[in-house]
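Field: sequence (string)
Field: structure_tokens (string)

Example rows 1 and 2, in order.
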Amino acid sequence: MQDVVLALLVKGPSHGYDLRGRLCAALGPLGETLNAGQVYVTLTRLEKVGLVVRDREDASARGPRRKVYALTGAGRERVAGWLAEPAGPRADVAEFHLKLVAAAESGMAEPLALVEARRRELRRSLAEAQHTLLAHGTDTEAGLLLEGIALRLQADLHWLEACGRAWSARAPYGKDGGNG
């Protein structure tokens, strides 16, 4: 969550309510489960470690003043590092989706490059799982587990194909906040 919030601040300062709205929009129905306080707790933690600063407070005629947060240089470096690191073998689909959204919104990475890197990781893992499965067969408990892992990897690869098609159809990243 911290890295996504940081990436959403790359284009400019924002307040927690706006950040939560952007996260909810990116997650669709899954965003409805996002606790409103989670964004504010995350911002407070990021401020304590120097990755964001409280920029100002905006007055609102409809409610309390809102704290506006801005990214620090260290925060920007962390976003760049996060976008450059591989997703890892157990990456959650929603987590990777948020990374794609954050990459497009921040303009610091190209979503299609992230999709392709993830695709390479999964193909390598699938090849390993299939090789091991051939050695063990599916008639053992270990074989059944390996078959499940291989099927999960195949499903993730299929989803990445859909991601590639969707992100290919969008406007160039960084030009319009990735909202093409």
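Row 2 begins here:
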Amino acid sequence: MKRNLTVFASAAPEPSLDRPCRDRLVAGDPLRTTWEHFVAVTGDMSAGIWACEPGAWNIAFADGKDEFFCIIAGRIAVADSDGKRAEFGPGEAGVIPAGFTGRFEVIEAVRKYYVVVDRQTADH
């Protein structure tokens, strides 16, 4: 099967919109927009662009699911369950590892590249 190169700049995937679950919401009610540009044939990896309005919510990553991200514009902070906090702005990157619990805060409306690897999907 021939696979084509994914070029974000020339792709226009339909956006999906959502908001944080009410039981995890800490501040605001931010609209989140995801443009999924790529999904691996095996379903265990996806990549795209994600944008969000200011707000904060608690996060809990599933075992086996990691996310790499790089901020395009705006500013976020991620804090673990012990309160250790890191801020990220344009050009800065990080990884939220499988099993991570903590808080995700959008300080300034943000846009980021993301890559999610889901090893649980690969196991099934």
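free_text_note (row 2): The chain has one domain: 16-123.
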